[in-house]
Amino acid sequence: DAKTTQPPSMDCAEGRAANLPCNHSTISGNEYVYWYRQIHSQGPQYIIHGLKNNETNEMASLIITEDRKSSTLILPHATLRDTAVYYCIVRVKGNTPLVFGKGTRLSVIA
Amino acid sequence: DAMVIQNPRYQVTQFGKPVTLSCSQTLNHNVMYWYQQKSSQAPKLLFHYYDKDFNNEADTPDNFQSRRPNTSFCFLDIRSPGLGDAAMYLCATSRINYNEQFFGPGTRLTVL
Fold first, then answer.
1. Is A49 an 8 Å CB contact of chain B?
2. What is the secondary structure of B34-98 as a DSSP string?
3. pLDDT tens for each residue of A16-57
4. Contact between B100 and B4 (Cβ < 8 Å)
């Protein structure tokens, strides 16, 4: 079973920051937080991951709370192409498979 | 470009008629995964290969089998498809001990 809880849906205005929350209160010390997204009719796409420090790449930023029980994925300037289901996943680094929860359906509105 | 390719993108089969879905990769990744995604649901892992080492999820039905003849190719065989097997089937790959999984576009299976 997925170890994360996410809101089922969110809306965001185009050009604004999208902040997607995730709760993972039972995360273990060696588990990372991963984010993937799935645009309609496509395979999931990796976005970012982190252990305890905040992370940023060309797609997004990941903010993890100090107690690691929750995190927020930030898309700084959302576009219509960012409309997708966003999955927050906790897993041990390496070859362990992904266990997807229900995710958050983000709708970016013009 | 290096990528994960799934063929066909759309497959229609009849109830009980065996079907094979294929996945190939040009990434030279050691690990390959098969996920099933039913309508409006999240992807669910069926099995994965760590090189040639096959790992079956406990709740994957016996109706589903997989073959990996070499590093580049992996097949999903559904021996007797039922109506409940209609879904998107996703193939993914990763390097050993690497974080990111790369997904193919999926094959949408329809069972008539």
1. yes
2. EEEE-TTS--EEEEEEETTEEEE-TTS-TTEEEE-SSSSEEEEEESS--GGG-EEEEEEEE-TT-
3. 999 999 999 999 999 999 999 999 989 999 999 999 989 999
4. no
| Partner residue opposite A98 with nearest CB, options B101, B104, B106 | B101
pLDDT of residue A95 exceeding 90, the answer is no
DSSP A68-96: SSEEEEEETT--GGG-EEEEEEEEESSSP
- Pairing status of strand B73-78 against strand B107-111: unpaired
Please report the pLDDT score of residue A49 as a whole number. Answer: 94
Distance from the Cα of B98 to chain A's closest Cα (Å) equals 5
Q: Does residue A94 have a pLDDT over 80? A: no
Whole-number average pLDDT of chain B: 93
Query: A97: which DSSP letter?
Result: P
In Å, how far are A78, B14, B79 from B47, measured between CA atoms? 35, 24, 16
